[in-house]
Amino acid sequence: MSYIFVGLGNPGEEYEGTRHNTGRILLTILGKQYDAEWKEDKKLSAKVAKIKVGKSPVTLVLPDTFMNNSGKSIKPLVTSIKGAEKLVVVYDDLDMPFGNCKISFNRSSGGHRGLESIIKAIKTEKFARVRVGISPKTPTGKMKKPRGEDAVMKVIMGKFKPEEMLVLKKLGKKMSEALETFVSGGLEKAMTGFN
């Protein structure tokens, strides 16, 4: 069975380059490194590309549903708890400062609607996630998490500046190394090397 890497975000031009689309952006960067050819998959409501990491087949998935309906694209691909062990979901995390990244496993959604939708659809939390920080930092490097719904919306729907996109490109490289380790050496090894 193929590994499945999912990049969460919202489809459509108005969301391109927004912080809430961090998962989509990073998975697209990963795809470029493998010369991925994206195709529309109407059944999954997603853009899908097949690549090989080492000798292992990997399916890259960018759901074309809105964030809170992401599970719809994943449900047909992950039909068992065993299958969920080969799933990695990449998404934006407001509880971490921008530029930080962490691999975690078997955790709650932390209020992230895209993740909630996937957990509901595949009926397990036992899968890997790459959490990518999007909260702004103060000049001293401390995290400045937005408070209140308006402030949160402003951050997650805000577009990345060109210099932030460069940071994401670097993160994309680091992430693809971690995912290669995940495929070849397992989750523990990837977490140790990446976190």
Please, could you describe this protein's structure?
This protein has 195 residues and is an alpha/beta fold. The chain has one domain (3-194): Peptidyl-tRNA hydrolase (Rossmann fold). The chain is 36% helix and 25% strand. The protein contains seven helices and seven strands, in the order βαβββααββαβααα. It has helices spanning 22-33, 71-74, 81-84, 113-122, 149-156, 162-185, 187-194; strands at residues 3-7, 39-41, 46-53, 56-63, 87-97, 101-105, 128-135. Strand 3 and strand 4 (56-63) form a beta hairpin. Helix 1 packs across helix 6 (162-185) and helix 6 runs antiparallel to helix 7 (187-194). The two termini are 27 Å apart. The model has no long low-confidence stretch (mean pLDDT 93).
Please specify the SSE layout and strand pairing:
Layout: E1 3-7, H1 22-33, E2 39-41, E3 46-53, E4 56-63, H2 71-74, H3 81-84, E5 87-97, E6 101-105, H4 113-122, E7 128-135, H5 149-156, H6 162-185, H7 187-194
Parallel strand pairs: 1-4, 1-5, 5-7
Antiparallel strand pairs: 2-3, 3-4, 6-7
Q: Do you know the CATH architecture?
A: 3-Layer(aba) Sandwich
CATH class: Alpha Beta
Count every beta strand, where a strand is a DSSP E run of 2 or more residues: 7
Percent range for β-strand residues: 15-25%
What is the CA-based Rg, rounded?
Answer: 16 Å
Question: CATH-wise, what's the superfamily?
Answer: Peptidyl-tRNA hydrolase
Kindly give the count of domains: 1
Q: Count the helices. How many?
A: 7
Report the helical percentage. Answer: 25-40%
CATH topology: Rossmann fold
Distance between the termini: 27 Å
Helix and strand content put the structural class at alpha/beta
Largest sheet: 7 strands, mixed
Order of helices and strands: EHEEEHHEEHEHHH
Overall mean pLDDT stands at: 93
- Using the alpha-carbon principal axes, give the shape: globular
- Looking across the biggest beta sheet, what order are the strands in? 2-3-4-1-5-7-6
